[in-house]
Structure formats: C-alpha cells, structure tokens
Amino acid sequence: MPTLAKPQDPALTQKKHGRSWHRTAGKPVRWWMIALILVIGFHRWIPETRWLMVHMVTLGLITTSIMVWSQHFTEALLHNRLPDRQRPRQILRIYGVTAGTVLLMVGMLADWWWLTLVSATVIGGLLTWHGLSLLSQLRSALPARFGMTVRWYAVAAFFLPVGAIFGAILALDLADPWHSRLLLAHQAVNILGFVGLTVSATLLTLWPTMVRTRMEEAATSLSRIALPTMAAGSLVAAAGALGGWVPVALLGLFAYLVGVGLVGRILIRTGMRKLPEGYMGWSVASGIAWLFITVVIALILVAAQGIQTSVMGALTIPFVAGFLLQTLLGAMSYILPSTMGGGPATVRASLAAINRGGIYRVTVLNLCIALFALPAGMLPSWVRAMVSIVGAVAFAAFIPLMISSAKVSIAGRRRLIPQRAASQSPASGTADAAAGSVTLGMPSTVGRPSSADAGASQVDAATRAGGSTRVAAGTDTPERKPNPLRQIVAGVLTVLLAVGAGIAVAPQSAGIGLSDGAQNAVQATGNTTEVTMHANQDMRFDPGEIEVPVGDRLVVTLINDDPTNVHDLVFANGATSGRVGPGETAEVDAGIITDHVEGWCSVIGHRSMGMTVNVIPVDEQGNPVGAADHKNHGAGAASAADDAQDPAAGVDFNAAPGEAFEVRDPALDPAPNETVHELTLDVQEVAREVAPGVTMDAWTFNGDYMGPTLRGKVGDVFEVTLTNSGSMGHSVDFHAGDVSPDDTMRTIAPGESLMYRFEAVRSGIWLYHCSTAPMSTHVAAGMFGAVIIDPPDLPKVDREYLLVQNETYLTVPPADQPDLPEGANAVVDPAGIAAGTPSLTMFNGHATQYMHEKLSAHTDERVRIWVLAAGPSKGSSFHVVGGQFDTVYKEGAYLLSPTSPGIPSGTGGAQALDLAPAQGGFVEMSFPEAGTYTFVNHSFAEAERGARGQIEVTE
C-alpha cells in the first residue's frame, strides 16, 4: 500500500529552501577564502602572486559575494521572493563567474591571451545577465520605497563587463603610456564603479540595521545625489585615464570623492545615535573610511605624478585590504548568522561567536594596513614583514570564527526540529518556521527601527547585542560585555610588538645598534636621502655609486627595467628589497649611513657580472667619510668567493650516491617513428645531489640536473614549449635548430612561456642549454641537455649509450640567499667559473653514479656511445681503458669507420674522441674479453673530479 507524503507547511518549506539557496550560493566564497590563504602561505613558489591575490579578492571573494547578497537584499527590499524554480539560474551565474575567474587566472599565468579574453567575456556576460535579472525582478514587483537601491545594484553590475574588457587588454602587456591608462581605467570602473556603488547602495539600508538605530531622515534624498555622483565620477575618471587627460581624470576622482563623502555623512550621522559594536560595525565603517582615504590619495598622486603605473600600485593595499576585505568581512559577520537562523537566542549566540575579539581585530588590521600602505622607505623592511604577518593572521581569524558561528547556528536549528515535528496546525507551523529562520530586516519607516515583519523583528531582538555581548549558545543568558578600550589597547600593543620585533631583527635599518666606534660617533641628521635606482638589462645598477650626507637615512626606490630577469637589492647591513620582477618597483630602507656600505643583486651570478652599488657617506664639502676607496668593491666579490669553502672539497669519489638519488639510465632508445616531436621543458629550481654528500641549488629543465634527451631524424620537427616556473629569468638555446634567436631564445620571466619550433636539417649530437646571462652559471647549475639527430642510414648496434659531460663550480650558500630549496648545501660559484677550476666534472649529472651502476655489454655485442661536452668551459678526451674504437663520428662526420677509404678493413682504430665545449659525436667498439672497463675523460684532472665510470662486460 503506497505511503502518502506528509503535507509540509508552506512557510517552513520556503524558509528551508531559502537557507539551502544561501548555503549553495555561498560555497564559492568559502572556496576563495581557503585558496587565498593557501596562495599567501605558498606565495614564494607561485608566479604572479600579487596579481593573483588581488584578483582572488576582487573577482573571487567580492564579485561572488556581491552576486549573492545583491539578490538577497533585492528580495528583502522588494518583499518579492523569487520562486524556487529560478534558483538554478542564479546558481549557474554564480558558479559560472567562479569558473570564469579560475580560467582567467589560468590564462594569465600561462600567458594564453585567448583564454583570458574568453574568460573575461564570460564573466562580463554573466554579470550583465545578473543585472538584467535584478531589473526584471524590480519591474515585476510592487512599488517599493527602496527600489532605487535595487536599480543601483543593476547599474553597478553593468560596470564590471566594461572593466573586464580593460582587464583583458591589460593582459597583452602593453607598453606605457597605455598600460598605465588602462590600469587606472580598470580600477576606476571595477573598484570605484562596480564594488563602490554596490557597497554604498547596500549600506544606506543595511547600516541602520547593523547599529540598531533608525535611519537618517535625509538618507533617501542624499543617496539620490550620492550614488549618481559616484557613478558619473568613476566613468569620467576612466575616460580621463584612457585619453591620458589628467585634468579629466582628476575631475572624475573628485566627483567620486564627493559622492563617497555624502554616503559617509549618512553613515556617520546614523552612527552618532548609536556607535557600532563589535567587529561587524567597526569593520564596515573602517572599510568606507579607507575608500574615502584611498580616493584622496589617488587624487594627490595623479595630480603630482600623472597617470603612472606606480600610482595604481600605491593604491593596491588600501583598496584591497582597507576597503574591499574589511567591508566584505564586516558585512558577512552580520549577514551570515542572521540568514542561517535558528531563533533569536541562536542568532545572538552566533553573532557573539563570529564577533569575538572584534574591536581588537579591527584595531590590529587598520594599524597594520596603515603601516604597510606607507611607502617602503618610511618603514624598515623587516618591520614591514612583521606587520604584514600580524595583519594576515588577524584577517585569517575570520575563518575559524565563521566556522564556530556556523556550528552554533546549526546546533540551534537542530534543537528546533522536535518543535517543528510537533507542530500540526498551519498557524503553529508558520510560527515555528519564523522561529527557526531569520529574514534580514530593512528599515521600512523613517524614524522607526526596522520591524517590518516577523523576521525583521527577530533580527531586531537577535542583534541588540551587536556582537559585543556574548551569549552562551542556545541560551538567553548574557555573559560579561567585553571592554572596548581594553581591546583597543591590546591591538595597539600587538602592532607595537610587531614593529619592535622587526627592528630587533634588523636594527641597522632603523639606525639602531650601530656596531663600531666610527658609526657611534656619527649623529643622525634626521634627514632622508631618496634615490631612484634602475636595474638594467646589461646587469648593472644605475647609479652604481651613491653619495649620501653622513648621518642621513638612505631610501632607495629600485625599478627593474630588465624585461626578463628578476633582480633584487641587498645591502651589507641586511636591508633588502626582496625579489623584484620585470617592470616592478620596490623600496628598500638602507638605514642611517655612517660608513661605506656595499649593495648587490643576490640572484646567483648577477653580482659577479657587475650588479653592485657602493654607498659612500660624504661630509658637507662632499668629501668621502670613513674607509678609503671603495670603487673596486664589487670586484672584491670574486676574490672573496675564492676564499669560500668548496662543499665538494671532501667528496669521496669512490662512494655510492645517496640512497634517495635515482641513477640516470644512460641507455638510449631508438629514434621514434613520428616526425613531429612535442616536449615541454619546465624550468624548476630544486635541490639535486651531484656527488655523494653534495646537494646543490640546481636550476633545471623538468626537475633533473641535465635535461631530457631528444632524438629524431633529419627532417623531423621539434615543438618545444618552455615554461618558467623558477624565480628568475631563463631561456633555452637549441643548437640543433637553425633559427633566428631573437624570439625563440629570448629570456622569459617567471610565470611566462614560449614555443620553440625548429626543423632538424642536419645530423649529429647537439647541445641545448639556457642562454640567459650569465650562461656559464646557468649551465653549471644544470640547465643543459642533448638532442640526437641520427645520421642517414645509421647502422643498428646491440647497445647504445649517451654520456653528457659537464662541470660545475660550487660554494657554500651565501647568508643573503635565504630562498634555497630545502636540503641544498651548495650553490654555483660564478667566481669559481671565472677562475676555471671545477668542483666536479660529471657524466649525466652525477660524479660517481656509473662507478656503482655500471653500463653493461657482452663480448659478442657492438656498442655505440654518444658523447657530448656540455661545458660550460671544459671539453673532453673520451677514452675507454682497455678498449679501442673502430668507428669515430664527430660533429656531423665520420672520422673513422670499418670501411674508411685507404684503410684495410678492420685495421684502423682510435683511442680517444676529442671534444671542445659544445661539441659531440659517437664511438663504436666491441669488447674482445669479459671484464670491467673504465671510461674516463683522459684529461685526468677532470677524471679525478668525477668524469669516469665503468662498463661491465660479460661473456
């Protein structure tokens, strides 16, 4: 007998579906929060982290939240809840924007502009659909007092597609002035227009509810002026930016500032009746304050400097951290507990959970944002680092508190289940549903608190505590109210401790703890000398010498003009800029100058190529003070490196490789049948063992010291994709390719990629290697490999091996090189390369591997051994002890073969294959007797450094 479904109360069903929609729609927000924290934690291994984090906030967190809550507020303001059948469309739009944002990031990081364009178009189209949907809902609803707010939600949504177009064009990396113009227009439309308008329109109605007071009487009339002024201002600012018209851009920014000022006036006058309580109110108030402050800063900078990329860079921190994140998290702290419901007591407890330590967190955040937003020269680098860590922790605290709040709400709803089950009548069912869920209330009458319906009245009761009075979960018993003053003092002390910790780590940068008597005798002048320095493509700092009045503080603005290489600036006193990507700018506070100070680029190899700077203190007459001539200071780097300990000095060349080391198989497979060979070379900077007990900071293709081997035939085409997952510029040069080097061999910056296509037109064994300066350093670090193009009619043999010889030059890691892979106890020594004495000479990337994992052959077999001398500086005289070669092939031609003219068959022989750096060939031989045959570089100094191995021959 069929079972009849039990009728459900319509009100209860409606609330259930409403909560389900919010939970489903809000999932991407949680995903983006988790992803953002992961990127912050692993930023040093992720390319383009600054761009990535900014767009994870703006497109991921902010845009998704706007789509969810603008829909929620539209329904509340219009008293017009959409039917459940339309929810899938809303979910489709929200998840579509999430997917589009992910693809946009993939396109940017992979440098696939077509994907960036498609993703930006998808995002813009979905926001347009969202705006049209809101307008449709507005037209179908009865006239509502706050219909104007919904109209501005829709207008704001139409701003984002325009900004998305600007962003897609920015991905083309246009040169200035267009890059700067598009960047300002992009920010004006997306942040000031899309986000600013949506937030302002929402707060006009949400703010009185949050602070639990009546709406300002002039709010409606002022908002009719403020919002159009803000919209017009953002559009005018964008137009001025695109046209390069500074006065027009300033006019637009000023108009926007007036609009924000009117919104702020409404919020301030509302808040004066009752101050905000807890995190939610003060975080939102701080966010609007930062919006106003940032627009003021933009006005000043554009007026002073014009439309420059550096201007927009200075606005990133206050815009993203100050305005966007604080406003979002503050609003979420209020909205989430209210929409999750569970009854008044549960909502109060949930609000209390998410607002724990609220004023303390707001205090810490805003002090950290203010300090970190200062020009870098005004804050020592270690202080900036400590402040950023404290601020990030304060931001991240929202996530566990949000989870705690959700648990309280879930527990409260579960306690209501028995009550709902016991309810039989429609009236009681409705009451239970109202008790189990809360609808966000909106002010319905000027001069009265919000209480338009049952849900609104429950929010009114549930949020009187404002998040500052703690309530035990599931009870109506208030706990002791936290003292706001204590939280403020605690927040100030926390930030002061962070500042103190930064100074303690590097006191020199703050002019404290000067070490010698000469320094202590110098009085600080209180003045600051500011210098702009350029890192050039020719591996030089400009200027390379800086004269500073003794006692002045030196602040250097480093601009990386090198289009492909990462650089940094490190001073001997510990001050550093950190790694600076191509086109980026950083500031470093070198501290109070009392004596000569040397600076350099710490990227391996760059210092030895001349990337040094000397800071010279001078007296009032311009005469040097302190130590004598330092003009040759940079050259001293090489001599200092000569004295450094070689980590390979004590290597036991009879020892086996470490247990974790994987011996490289020297056996060669025949050339494949296909005529088009596709390969990806991914640049990775990893720790790799090169001798027993010696693990170096290796720069590699595909993670191995010595890249993969390519093999083909004459006429084959090779399509190689180079991707740079390293921390500096790299490239690849295929000697097997007869192509112009201008494009295919260019250096690419971290995060970039390029396609290298060539046709093999000549046979031989060819070297490939990184060709980024200094090439010797990159090759010695592991960035080399072999391409074998078989000669026509190459005879078959029984066994075929490949041995690529190279040498490396090692030193201990310098103290100013903290970014080494875990386990690396050695780095390439450019000074050692210049001196010409290798630390190790190896076959296939390890000094002892083939002494323990021997090559093998039988006495009745013919063996071919391909040999390549990769360098960077040493050649090879390849010899097999006890063996003779009857075939020698070198640099594309046979020097000897069993059928060589003028030599009786089988009587000609050779003892060594002589190769200069970058030359290669092969030898063929047979072994008449069983035994162990040693192969060596017959330049015995190189053999004794590791260039040897063994062949085990059996019957």
Automatic annotation (TrEMBL):
This enzyme's EC code(s): 1.7.2.1
Reactions listed under catalytic activity: nitric oxide + Fe(III)-[cytochrome c] + H2O = Fe(II)-[cytochrome c] + nitrite + 2 H(+)
Region (Disordered): 1-21, 439-483, 622-652
Chain intervals with Low complexity compositional bias: 634-650
Top-level division of the source organism's lineage: Bacteria
Cofactor(s) in the UniProt record: Cu(2+); Cu(+)
All residue ranges annotated as the Plastocyanin-like domain in the record: 683-792
Transmembrane stretches, start-end: 29-46, 52-70, 91-110, 116-138, 150-171, 191-210, 222-242, 248-268, 280-303, 315-337, 358-379, 385-406, 488-506
Pfam families given in the database record: Cu-oxidase_3 (PF07732)
UniProt keyword list: Copper, Membrane, Metal-binding, Oxidoreductase, Repeat, Transmembrane, Transmembrane helix
Record's subunit section: Homotrimer.
The family this protein is said to belong to: Belongs to the multicopper oxidase family.
Name the UniProt record assigns to this protein: Copper-containing nitrite reductase
Organism of derivation: Kocuria carniphila
Lineage summary: Bacteria, Bacillati, Actinomycetota, Actinomycetes, Micrococcales
